[in-house]
Amino acid sequence: MTLKIGVPSKGRLMDKTFDWFGTRGLIMRRAGTEREYSGAVDGIEGVDLVLLSAGEIPRELAAGRIHLGVTGSDLIRDKLADWPSQVAELARLGFGHADLIIAVPMAWIDVDTLDDLDAAAAAFRATHGHRLRIATKYHRLVRDFLTEQGIADYQLVDSQGATEGTVKNLTAEAIADITSTGETLRANHLKILSDGLVHSSEATLYAARHAEWLVAERQALERIASCLGLEVPVGL
Amino acid sequence: MTAPRATERAEAERLFTAFLDAGAEPVETDILQPADILLDLYGEDIRARAYVTQDPLRGEMMLRPDFTVPVVQMHMAQNREPARYAYRGEVFRKQDTPTEARASEYLQVGFELFARQNPVEADAEVFALFARLLAPLDLRPVTGDLGIILAAIRGLKTSDRRKAALTRHVWRPRRFRALLDRFSGRTPLPEARARLLDRLASDSPEALIDAAGPFVGLRAPEEVAARARALIEDADTPPISATEAGILDDLLSLEGSAPVALSHLRDITVDLPAIGPAVDRFADRLVALERQGVATGSLPFEASHGRTTLEYYDGFVFSFLADLPGWPPVASGGRYDALTSVLGQGREIPAVGGVIRPALVAALKGGKP
């Protein structure tokens, strides 16, 4: 059997992943044409490259259909319940940085912190008869963060894209979304809460705890680990 | 360590029959409950815990996460008092961390008492009934009384706005702590707040809002301006005194047997007379419990018990614990007067009740699964 490693199938994330492994002696490349989603790893035996959407890699890791996977730490934490019991973090790759933040309209001069947001939510609910809506696609991460912070009187509404526009469109009062430069936020007249950083995401290499780790896969993992200069995590 | 289904069901029937023998009338509720009312009551906490599904005609529905809400709604619709209800059936709760005792589908057997007269008698009746039924299991009971904490907040010498903020977060200890620290001057004003107050000293909120950028969203400029004015008012409010904040800390951390707690509460009443009536009620409840055959001399009391459950208990609260690692309470309950007024749209009916988890009872009885 071979060890399967899943990496993002397109864009900068794929290129940077290939670079990261490449400079460490593991040459990844696409097989066949630009459009074919399969790949190969040169320089190491017993390893298969699987190209996947970054959003599906957490699920594939959890199911044990791939042994290793590269994806954003935000996606792992959001999509997997009790993620440390399902995957082990092997290495942070130093790219794909993005912050999941909470933002509100710039014109809310009275709101700068979560404490303010909470108080504004209480008044909003009393005035409008429904909870203050926060648009996001990161439900678990945002809910866990706000619960831990003790914020009340809000509700999450699902937004799978163009989340910054939901406030202007009156489908949400605030948003929780990924930002790297903040330009889209400013263009949509939103500002980040000063203590509203939910998670600092980074492309990360994970190992699947529930994948089949027989002798062949384990040996392949050890070869990869020594090539990358990583420790093999305990309990795998 | 969970009992087989049949054992769980048999235990549920036994407990249910015992509740009927105690004068309850049997009630049933739907397993599929409309999601909106539960979401409005409990917010995202319930969305994280309940199974939400979609009905083609009725919209978002939830697999019953507990019985209290539908039973209160049923009672409100028929308007007969006093009333005692018993129910048993499945409840469903998502579990993020798998432990055997925290099942995602299990039976609950419950008893609810709606009565306008003699709330302490009602509290005592429910607790004594649960204590009697659970006596053979040798569980550790814990009691509390959120009414005392709520009365203490009402009695603080500070603005109504601050009292309302503290009351709202009684069930979120961390935010409550942060608010109390700020209102009592133990933590400084956040820097951005200080800057805003500076600017509000020379400009109107409206001028600052205009200067901040184009207005987007449903929260109107008037709402922003109103809160800005509230912040100015709050900045002029003197801090809650160190003495009062200290009393509140003392109260929140109070733990001991009921008589020890009572004497401590009497001492606190000297400095915070506002809790007097709530402490009297606590004392009366102990007398009522004794009359019901509960030995209160060693009954554990924890003032903060019930502060981390779903926010609907607002008076007497209790749990029966097996003290096994990873186990939820075998039984729990309390008074939830405010919930009935929310669900009754203005009409309210004092209510107290509780639930038992028969699977845990059966597991304890069997010794081993």
What does this entry look like structurally?
The complex is a heterodimer of chains A (236) and B (369). Chain A is α/β, with parallel strands linked by helices and 236 residues long. Chain A folds into 2 domains: 3-97 and 202-228, Periplasmic binding protein-like II (D-Maltodextrin-Binding Protein, domain 2), CATH 3.40.190; 98-200, Periplasmic binding protein-like II (D-Maltodextrin-Binding Protein, domain 2). Helix content of chain A is 30%, strand content 31%. Chain A is built from 7 helices and 12 strands. Chain A has helices at residues 11-22, 57-63, 73-79, 114-128, 139-149, 183-187, 215-228, and strands at 3-8, 27-30, 38-42, 47-52, 68-72, 87-92, 98-105, 132-136, 154-158, 174-179, 190-201, 203-208. In chain A, the strands form 2 sheets. Chain A has a 7-stranded mixed beta sheet with strand order 2-3-4-1-5-12-6. In chain A, strands 9-8-10-7-11 form a 5-stranded mixed beta sheet. In chain A, helix 3 (73-79) crosses helix 5 (139-149). The longest helix of chain A is centred in the middle third of the chain and has 15 residues, at 114-128. Chain A is elongated, with a radius of gyration of 21 Å. The two termini of chain A are 17 Å apart. With 369 residues, chain B is α+β, with helices and mostly antiparallel strands. Chain B folds into 3 domains: 5-139 and 322-366, Bira Bifunctional Protein, Domain 2 (BirA Bifunctional Protein, domain 2); 147-173 and 241-304, no CATH class; 186-238, no CATH class. Helices cover 49% and strands 17% of the residues of chain B. Chain B has 16 helices and 12 strands. Chain B has helices spanning 5-21, 35-42, 44-49, 68-78, 119-134, 146-154, 160-168, 173-183, 191-202, 205-212, 221-236, 242-252, 258-271, 276-291, 337-343, 358-366; strands at residues 25-26, 32-34, 52-55, 59-63, 83-92, 105-114, 140-145, 255-257, 300-302, 316-321, 331-335, 351-356. In chain B, the strands form 3 sheets. Chain B has a 7-stranded mixed beta sheet with strand order 1-5-6-12-11-10-7, with helices on both faces. Chain B has a 3-stranded antiparallel beta sheet with strand order 2-4-3. Chain B has a two-stranded antiparallel ribbon with strand order 8-9. In chain B, helix 1 packs across helix 16 (358-366) and helix 13 packs antiparallel against helix 14 (276-291). The model of chain B has no long low-confidence stretch (mean pLDDT 92).
